[in-house]
Amino acid sequence: MVATVQPHIAAAALARVADRFVLDSDVLALDCAAQGPRLRSVLEAGHAALAAGATPWTLSFDEWEARIEGLRTLAADTLFEGDAEGVAMVPSVAFAVATAAQQLPLAPGDAVLVLDAEFPSSLLPWQQRCRQTGARVIATQRGHGQDWTSALMQAWDQTAQVRVVAVPQVHWHDGALLDLDRIALRARAEGIALVLDLSQSLGVMPAELARWRPDFIAAAGHKWLLGPQGLAWLWVAPRWRHLGDGLDQHWQARDAVEWRFPVQAPPPYRLGARRFDAGGVTDPMRLAMSAAALQQLQAWGVAVIAQRLRQLTSALDRALDAHRLDAWKTPGHAPHFTALRAPDAGQLHAATDTLRSANVICTRRAGLLRIAPYLHVDEADMDRVARIVADAVRA
Ligand SMILES: Cc1ncc(COP(=O)(O)O)c(C=O)c1O
């Protein structure tokens, strides 16, 4: 009989993994939304690859290719329902979104629907594509107390010729959740392309490919995926894998025979989403670091990570209540990501300054203090944050 571990028991085991991370004991890092804490295994893999790079002739071309394909399969198994043919490697989310935008047909008057105050890498490529095609970027405005999903639905109702909906699952300002089940259902019913930026959720919340059937997914590798900067992910739906061009026309995306690249016409693209692989991202150090990070995520399991991080953000919410700071909570936040909402600018400054002088690292965005803990954090840390804020605003 196979013994199954209950997720809550597994999550309890994760409460003791802080020593797997490279940490500064004087600092409480609470901004995985900017960059994940560095796993020791990832750092060691990076160091080893850097050292091996001093003797580049020891890495054969075939071995390099095998590492690239091995990482693609690992990413697919960990993040994309095992669909290695749909995975491309790119340097950034901006690159991934620009690749997606270039594939999607847009005409004058068409609309690309995004959220207001979207992260620039999920906005700038649409602005450029709309300038090229005469289409329009329409930003969803959220009414007071309204959630993003109903605001998006309302903007969708009110906008003519919506052709693309480009949204995240979790808003990068405060961890507010969007209901991708509802959004995807409507996009499919209306034949509208769906492009997702899952940088703030993948690694904690799964990409539901079969359920959502999106067109493209972009995700940064250095946040909740714990990998290096400069290696991000682009998942491409089957319908876009057999046509279209990559942005940079790198040789690694081509199926050349014995390094022959005729002047008259390029060799065919490699199979699947490999045609969108970008140049430069497959340097052995990034491959090694990314592989080590994904192996650890796979070993822990995304559902278990989510459960442990929910315990932590719930502990923060409880501590805020206990300090009569309930107005500072973000309603409907993701399991792993929330924000402190100061009632006024004075209290925001006081909280920001006091947290900073206590070496608590959390980024201020749009008048909010993002709290995005990872597995190195525990409930006592969450209590401490609430206590520091309470002392700061009542001083
Ligand atoms: C929602 C979101 N998308 C994308 C990114 C990263 O984009 P890029 O890889 O283009 O720097 C971030 C954060 O850096 C983000 O919060």
SSE diagram, text form:
Layout: H1 7-14, E1 28-29, H2 40-52, H3 61-79, E2 87-90, H4 93-103, E3 111-115, H5 124-133, E4 136-140, H6 148-158, E5 162-168, H7 180-190, E6 193-197, H8 209-212, E7 216-219, E8 232-236, H9 284-300, H10 302-322, E9 338-340, H11 345-357, E10 360-361, E11 364-365, E12 368-371, H12 379-394
Parallel strand pairs: 1-10, 3-4, 3-5, 5-6, 6-7
Antiparallel strand pairs: 2-8, 7-8, 9-12, 11-12
Helix pairs in contact: 1-10, 2-9, 3-9, 4-5, 10-12, 11-12
Bound molecules: pyridoxal-5'-phosphate.
The site of pyridoxal-5'-phosphate has 13 residues, from helix 4.
Number of strands: 12
Taken from the alpha-carbon principal axes, the silhouette is: globular
What radius of gyration results from the CA coordinates? 22 Å
Strand line-up across the major sheet: 2-8-7-6-5-3-4
Mean pLDDT: 95
Strand percent estimate = 5-15%
Describe the structure.
By secondary structure, the protein is an alpha/beta fold. It folds into 2 domains: 7-30 and 301-394, Aspartate Aminotransferase, domain 1; 47-299, Type I PLP-dependent aspartate aminotransferase-like (Major domain) (Aspartate Aminotransferase, domain 2, 3-Layer(aba) Sandwich), CATH 3.40.640.10. The protein starts with 6 loop residues before the first helix and ends with a helix. The protein has helices spanning 7-14, 40-52, 61-79, 93-103, 124-133, 148-158, 180-190, 209-212, 284-300, 302-322, 345-357, 379-394; strands at 28-29, 87-90, 111-115, 136-140, 162-168, 193-197, 216-219, 232-236, 338-340, 360-361, 364-365, 368-371. Helix 1 (7-14) packs across helix 10 (302-322) and helix 4 packs parallel to helix 5 (124-133). Helices cover 39% and strands 12% of the residues. The strands form 3 sheets. A 7-stranded mixed beta sheet has the order 2-8-7-6-5-3-4, with helices on both faces. The mean pLDDT is 95. The longest helix has 21 residues, at 302-322. The protein is globular and about 75 Å long. Strand 3, helix 5 and strand 4 form a beta-alpha-beta unit. The chain binds pyridoxal-5'-phosphate. The site of pyridoxal-5'-phosphate has 13 residues, from helix 4. Pyridoxal-5'-phosphate binds at residues 92-94, 119, 121-122, 168, 172, 197, 199-200, 220, 232.
